[in-house]
Each structure stands twice: as C-alpha cells, then as structure tokens.
Design goal:
Radius of gyration: 31 Å
Strand content: 25-35%
Largest sheet: 8 strands, antiparallel
Number of strands: 21
Number of domains: 3
Shape: elongated
Order of helices and strands: HHHHEEHEEEEEHHEEEEEEEEEHEEHEEE
Structural class: alpha+beta
Number of helices: 9
Low-confidence stretches: none
Mean pLDDT: 88
Helix content: 25-40%
Length: 432
Amino acid sequence: MFGLFQSEDKKMRENAANWLELAEKVYHFRRDVLPSAQLAKLVQQINALKEGIKQRLEAAKLKLQIEQAEGVLRETGGAIYPKNSLMENVEFFVVAAIVILGIRTYFAQPFKIPTNSMWPTYYGMTGENLSSSADTPGPIAKIFRLAAFGAQRIEAIAPRSGEVTAPFFNTGHMAYTVQPDRTWLVFPTQVKEYTFYVDGTPATVRVPLDFGDFDRMVVETYFGNDQAFAQSWGRQSQTTSQEESMIKVDAGAGTFARVRRLALNRTVKTGDSLLGFDLLTGDQLFVDRMTYHFMRPKSGQGFVFRTGNIEGIGQDQYYIKRLIGTPGDVIEIKEPAVYRNSVPITGADAFELNAKRQGKYRGYFNADPRTGAKYLQPGEKLTVPSNGFFAMGDNSGNSQDGRYWGFVPLKDAIGRPLFIYYPFTKRWGPAR
C-alpha cells in the first residue's frame, strides 16, 4: 500500500536490489561450473548493480543496468534463472512445507479434540439429534453448518417396512464392528459400523472410531431418555424372546463379543429415517509447543502429551487432559474433589467447578477396578514419581486417563492449549 507513495527512483532502487540478490545467488550456486568469461561478466554486473544502488542513480540509469544484468543472467543462470513455472511451484511448496513443519515442531501445533474426556471445557465430536423432518436443516443451512461447525449429516434409512431392532452388547451399548475405511478416499482409517434391522433386513451406518455419542442418539430417538431405555432393557432381559448371537467387534483383529437383539418399539416404512443426526466436529486448537522448552508444566494447565511410552495405551498418538500432579505431588480423590498434597487442588476453574458439581461439570470420581482403572481407588493416595506427570480429564466419569494407565513421562510433555480456532462457537478464543 505504501508503495503508492514512493518515488520512481526509490522503487527502481528496490527493484535493482532484488536483481542484485538474484545475481549473487547465481554466482554462489554456479561459480564453480561457469566458464571464466561468463563468470567475469556476471561479477561485472553484480558490481555495477551494487555501485548503482550505492550512488542512488536515477531510475532511468538503474533500469538500463537491470536490463543488462537480466541478459547476463539468462546466459549464466542455468536452472536458477529463468525459472519455469514448474520449478517455481516446487520451490514455493518446499519452502512452505519447511516453514509449516518448523512452526508445528517448535511453536504452535494444530490439534483436534476427538473425544469428550475434557467436556465441557473442550468438546469432542458430538451429535445433534435430528429426529424429525422439521428438525432437518435445509440446503443453505447445511452449507452454513458445515462451514461453521464442521457438521456432517449421518443417517440410516429403512430398507423395507417393518419392526426395528438392533443388537446391543451386554453393557447396554449398541453393538458395532470396527471396520477399515479411508479419509478423503486416500488415508487409511477405522470407523465404527452400527447395524439396525427392519423386519430382519440390515441397514448400516458408519461413524468415526472416536465418536462416543451414538448411544445417546439412539436412546433419544427411540426411548426419549436413559430411564425409559433402562426400563425397556430390563423388561426385555426378563423374557426369553431376545435373540443372542456373537458378532465380530474388530474386523481386522477377529475379536468377538456376545450381543442380544433388542426391539426398539417402532415400526417404520421403506425409506423412513431410522436415525438422523448431525455429527459436529470436535474443538480444534493450537498447542503452545514453546513454553515447555523453558519451564515445567504447572498443575491445572491443559496438558498435551504423546502416549507412545505409556504402558496400557499401546499406540503413539497425542492426548489432551488436565495436569493434576507434578513430580513429588501426592494425589487423592475424595469425590467429587481432587486433593493435591492434602488440600483441595487449585490452578484451574475446572477444579472448583467439578468440586462443586456446578453447571455441566460432574465432579471427579475414584477409580473403579471393574472398568479397568488401577489408580486412585477410594482412600488411595498416589505419589507422582520424579520422572512423570499425572493427568485426568475434566469429564472424569467418561475419561480414560491416569487412573487407568498411570503416569506421563517427562519427555513426552508436548505443550498446553493456546487458542480454539474452530468451530465458530462460543468456545472460540483463548483456551482454558
């Protein structure tokens, strides 16, 4: 913008400086392969440009020097000058990739919250029930919701008319099979595949592997609330009419589980929606990777870490939890509060909100061995070792965290949440 107010002489000097930089680049990269005569001409043009800029020659004279330099560079430039469009594009993308990788490695890394273990501070993928046609967004609303919230329509359609049933695990969760899939039709991934049956004919629907809201969508659509579902489950469990079978839970690993077929108390017609909801993307945020190079994490901070060296997780990925204990701290849970070194823990709003079970915060819970949790059972105190951290989710009742797999090695601490940049909800802004 300010270039509009520059004199012609100043603009030409800046242009000459750019040509001088290019000429010096050719000199440094090609001086050992150029014939002596061409190398001498190149050096002569470099010196002429330097002198012209130093003496602040008028625009016309500098333009003449640039034209002369351009002719020499065509003779001596090789692959550096003149460049074809392919070379320019390759160079641009290589430089951009290096810059992006540098920023991700040392400064700020984008991170997507997949699950609701940190809810309601951070949201993972959630479902918004669209149980009737009146609730279904129109074409313009769909485009807006996709752009603003990352909303993807998930729907299962009745293949025929009849009564709707579905298989459930003995835990009360709707049964699924983990299937291989691809993101953007290219990158390998895994999904959960759920199956409804209409008069015995299957209708499948797939959701991301980390999506944990599917059962809520089913309960809301067919039963209204958890209490009504529990009553129907209890009634049908007492009858002998429930069909039991084995299904393959993981198509790749060959893992099987026992399921029972549950009537969903609804009759549909061909083409009716068996289940319809919008899957809203999890919070996407930038992680500060710089701070932990200079100072240790503090209790109460949001805490991003790698899991590859944590026994019990089994794969290398990034997790986000809240940092509870640092080396030497003694941790105890007295529901609904966490105690650190024998006093109620401080350092984050989530600690106080959970302790009071205020708003959407449900409190912290002791480990239940029946779920596989090993640490911080009722009355147990846990001392954080000198080489580790202890972390938990804000949504303690729905979080696979340190109570299950113990401690995060010091070297695997990555950074702290910095800014929620997507989706555009009321949570957009500085991370808590």
